Amino acid sequence: MSQQESALVLITMMMIAIMLSSSQALSIFIPSQQQRPPTVIPEPSSKPLLPVLLMHGVTVDNNSMTYLRDFILESNPGTIVLSLPCEDRLGSLFHPMAEQLELFAQLVEQAKAQYGFRDHHLICHSQGGLLCRSYLQMYPKHTVRVFVSLSGVQNGEFGIPGDKSWEIVLKDKFPFLWNMTADEIYAVFYTDAFQKLVSVANYWKDPYHMDSYRQHSQFLAIMNNDSTTVDYASKYHFRENMLRIDKMILNGSPQDEIIKPYFSAFFDYYKYDSSSNALVTESMKLQSFYINDVFGLKTLDREKRLFIQRVPNVTHKEWITNQTLYELYMRPFLY
Ligand SMILES: *[C@@H]1O[C@H](CO)[C@@H](O)[C@H](O)[C@H]1NC(C)=O
Ligand SMILES: *[C@@H]1O[C@H](CO)[C@@H](O)[C@H](O)[C@H]1NC(C)=O
Ligand SMILES: *[C@@H]1O[C@H](CO)[C@@H](O)[C@H](O)[C@H]1NC(C)=O
Ligand SMILES: *[C@@H]1O[C@H](CO)[C@@H](O)[C@H](O)[C@H]1NC(C)=O
Ligand SMILES: *[C@@H]1O[C@H](CO)[C@@H](O)[C@H](O)[C@H]1NC(C)=O
């Protein structure tokens, strides 16, 4: 780190300490529920699907998946569809991903015990997409058949989403973030305090500061086997665990306004190119986790069990509110 960077980190740490010591309750900004859009009525099928578990995104709760649940039930009446009440609203932002993953895994087990099923599908939105992907590679006894990721933040985030998402909630609690740009925020997000407090910090992947990310990210760097110290892939058998699923479906859209870059949803990412001094797009197939088949992505792809659907003109929340999108890009994969 340069002297300037060290100073920035030091100032940041002091600010964090001050913030954390104030016991003031969090004030809340929660985006309001959208009106249900007009839809086509699907032909119902007589057969229920395997149970479908839904996992919501950050700063909302499990009821944000109500439309999607209803779409599934309209098409396949009798299906068990549960939107898991994992950490919600503020909790989904102000808990580290590792803790949320543990709770998620418990809720899956509870649902299986309560309803008495084994095999099931997972449909997960946004931050939930990364949570579910991590579940699949960390939990050897999972019984997931089809995993659908809806604009999942699979390969990290680098960009401020605007006031429709976590930005406003975070800045309300930490006002000093207001005047920081995406390029500067790593100095805050890669501190131990933020890694242990803010979910977004856990998957913040700054292409200009990849060494910091590898060293300090306490979630994404683990799940992508980017850590400099521990071979998590071997320790937890990522590949073997993931390959228990049947199919992985990755849905996203260039018009997504929240996931930055939107192509993180497809495991592509930014790469800093020093010769042009610019960020370029590096595709999934060039990512080291793909090349080394760290969590089975290459195998899924080779065996045609990986489906990437880049759908134009879909905004972030539309994935969970537009019935046509369910009928076209989710239902055909479920059984
Ligand atoms: C739902 O998605 C379909 C397919 O992308 C699109 O044609 C339609 O306009 C969307 N409906 C609404 C209300 O946005
Ligand atoms: C959200 O979770 C609660 C239980 O905590 C449940 O009663 C409710 O039905 C869930 N919402 C959906 C859409 O499944
Ligand atoms: C951000 O910068 C503006 C203009 O430079 C300043 O007026 C404002 O007080 C700053 N906000 C915070 C929270 O530091
Ligand atoms: C994971 O990372 C470790 C440490 O960098 C490396 O030794 C190991 O080969 C990687 N595992 C896979 C499956 O690529
Ligand atoms: C996306 O939406 C814009 C504006 O509504 C429209 O002009 C454009 O044709 C759409 N693109 C696609 C590929 O549907």
From TrEMBL:
Main location: other
Function: Catalyzes the cleavage of thioester bonds from S-palmitoyl-CoA or S-palmitoyl-N-acetylcysteamine (unbranched structures) but does not have activity against palmitoylcysteine or palmitoylated proteins, branched structures or bulky head groups. Conversely, hydrolyzes both long and short chain fatty acyl-CoA substrate.
Secretion signal span: 1-25
Gene3D superfamilies the UniProt entry points to: alpha/beta hydrolase (3.40.50.1820)
Class in the EC hierarchy, top level: hydrolase
Annotated EC: 3.1.2.2
Cell compartments where the protein resides: Lysosome
Source domain of life: Eukaryota
Keyword Oxidoreductase annotated: no
InterPro entries: AB_hydrolase_fold
Cellular compartments per GO CC: lysosome
Keyword Signal: yes
Protein name in UniProt: palmitoyl-CoA hydrolase
Catalytic activity: S-hexadecanoyl-N-acetylcysteamine + H2O = N-acetylcysteamine + hexadecanoate + H(+)
Organism: Naegleria lovaniensis (Amoeba)
